[in-house]
C-alpha cells in the first residue's frame, strides 16, 4: 500500500529547489517537521495492511489499537409520558349509542385487506398458532392444523382440521365498536376495523362464544 509520505517529500523538494538564501532553511525545517509527523503519527497501521500474493488479495485484521470506534448515535426524542393522557383528557365522551342499524357483515370480516391472497382468519391463525400445517395448493395460506396457546385461559389446544374449536376474537367487539362510534365510519374504515390484526386474537371457541 502506498502511503502519502512520498507526496509530502516531493512537494517539499520542489519548493526547496526554487528558494534562495535563508528561505531554504525555513522550508527545510517545515519539510523535516512534516516528515517526522508522518513517521510518528501519520503512517498507516501495518497490521491492517492489504497484502497481495499470487494474484490474490487478503486483508489482515486490524490490531485492537487501530480499530476505529463509532460514536453512539443520540436517540430520537420521544413524546413526553403525559402526552397520551393529555390527549385523552381532551376527548369528548358520550354515552353508548343504540345498536340500531348494526350488522356484523358491514365489517367484512375475513376479507383480504392486505391483498396477500389470504383471508384475515388464516393470516391470524398463521400468526398465533405453532406447529402449523398448511393446505396443499393454498399457496401457503390455509391452516389445517396447529397448536394454540390460548391467551385468555393459558391452556393449549390442538387445531386439527376442525375450524369449530378455534375462533378469531375481536378484542373490541364489532357491536361494541358500532355503539361507541363505528357507525360513523365509511365502508372502507369499517372493513379496516373488522380485519385489523392488532384487534384480533386466535382463541378457544368455547370461551369466545360465551354470552
TrEMBL record:
Residues 119-210 form the GmrSD restriction endonucleases C-terminal domain. InterPro entries: GmrSD_C. Keywords: Endonuclease, Hydrolase, Membrane, Nuclease, Transmembrane, Transmembrane helix. The chain crosses the membrane at residues 15-40. Residues 57-79 have a biased composition (Low complexity). Residues 48-81 are annotated as: Disordered. GO terms for molecular function: endonuclease activity. This is HNH endonuclease. It comes from Brevibacterium casei.
Amino acid at each position: 500500500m502506498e502511503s502519502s509520505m512520498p507526496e509530502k517529500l516531493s512537494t517539499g523538494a520542489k519548493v526547496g529547489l526554487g528558494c534562495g538564501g535563508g528561505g531554504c532553511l525555513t522550508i527545510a525545517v517545515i519539510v523535516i517537521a512534516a516528515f517526522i509527523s508522518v513517521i510518528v503519527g501519520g503512517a498507516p497501521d501495518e497490521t491492517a495492511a492489504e497484502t497481495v500474493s499470487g494474484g490474490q488479495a487478503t486483508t489482515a485484521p486490524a490490531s485492537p489499537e487501530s480499530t476505529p470506534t463509532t460514536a453512539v448515535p443520540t436517540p430520537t426524542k420521544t413524546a413526553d409520558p403525559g402526552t397520551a393522557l393529555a390527549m385523552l383528557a381532551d376527548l369528548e365522551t358520550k354515552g353508548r349509542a343504540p345498536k340500531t342499524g348494526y350488522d356484523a357483515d358491514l365489517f367484512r370480516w375475513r376479507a383480504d385487506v392486505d391483498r396477500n391472497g389470504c383471508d384475515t382468519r388464516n393470516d391470524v391463525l398463521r400468526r398465533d398458532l405453532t406447529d402449523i400445517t398448511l393446505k396443499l395448493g393454498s399457496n401457503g395460506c390455509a391452516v389445517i392444523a396447529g397448536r394454540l396457546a390460548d391467551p385468555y385461559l393459558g391452556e393449549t389446544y390442538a387445531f386439527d382440521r376442525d375450524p369449530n374449536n378455534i375462533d378469531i376474537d375481536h378484542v373490541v367487539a364489532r357491536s361494541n365498536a358500532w355503539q361507541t362510534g363505528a357507525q360513523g365510519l365509511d365502508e372502507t374504515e369499517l372493513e379496516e376495523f373488522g380485519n385489523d390484526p392488532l384487534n384480533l386474537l386466535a382463541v378457544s371457541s368455547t370461551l369466545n362464544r360465551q354470552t
